[in-house]
# Entry
Amino acid sequence: MTDKATSDKVSYQARVFAVLEAALEVSESSRPASELTERLGLPLSTTSRLVNFLVAQGMLSIRGTGGYGPGPRMFRLAMRTLDQLHESEQLDRVTRDLSKLTGESVSIGLIVSDKIVLVSRCEPDASLRAVARVGDLIQPHTSAMGKAILAACTDDHQRRMVEAAEGDVPATVLDELTGELAEVRRAGYAVDEETYSPGLRCRAAAILGPGGRPAGGISIAGPAARYSRELADAGVDELKARAAELSSIVEAH
# Structure
């Protein structure tokens, strides 16, 4: 390969990564190709070609708003990367300990590009359980974990998270949650009484990172027939203690 061909290949690869990084910036709303073009100083035709390539490869997905979010391949890579981190062992330890203590399913989700990804989960030995898998996406506006996280978010971050899940303007959705999120902030935890899934009861608390920004959430869930309201409420103090423990781990890294 000639020096020019090598240089052209490196330049193309650098542009691919630049477009991917710009499209997945968490701190800002998702951008359409026209805004990515302006930010990166690339021709629109080049940006569109690279974005289409990344979508075809599963690294990006197209949101209903016209912007871009992480694609399924990106989520798989993120999960594999998380598994290599030392912190993953600590997350798994917390889910195991809390599941053993409560006898119910315990899950931890982390925010990845405005979406909540289930990263650790422990099931009880009991035959009746809440069904979910590591790698699943958790809805921010219908689940206890999602509401615990939303309650800790700024208004703009709330909008982006619901938008990432719904693919449209979430103003109405968030308006309907105003009272409930205020109660979550007051109590320090969120409640789900068979709303997210019929027959399922859940309690959840937010995991906070640097500056008090939400990094994720932890939840305890089980069948309402076994996991009574009294049992669920009795476990709230332990749930909040584990959320605080995880917050200190996240903030330290």
